[in-house]
Amino acid sequence: MDAHHVPVLLDAVLAYLAPERGGLFVDCTVGLGGHAAALLARAPAARLLGLDRDPEALAVAGERLAPFGDRVRLVEAEFHRLAELAGEPPRGILADLGVSSLQLDRAERGFSFRREGPLDMRMGRSEMSAKDVVNRYPEADLERIFRDYGEERQARRIARALVEARRDRPIETTRELAALIERAKGHQGRGGGGGVGRLREGRVDPATRVFQALRIEVNRELEGLSELVDQAVRLLEKDGRLVIISYHSLEDRIVKHGLRDLARGDVDRVTGRPLAETRLIEVLTKKPVRPSAAEVALNPRSRSARLRAARRI
Ligand SMILES: C[S@@+](CC[C@H](N)C(=O)[O-])C[C@H]1O[C@@H](n2cnc3c(N)ncnc32)[C@H](O)[C@@H]1O
Question: Rounded to the nearest whole angstrom, what is the distance from the C-alpha of residue 110 to the centroid of ligand 1?
Answer without folding.
Answer: 16
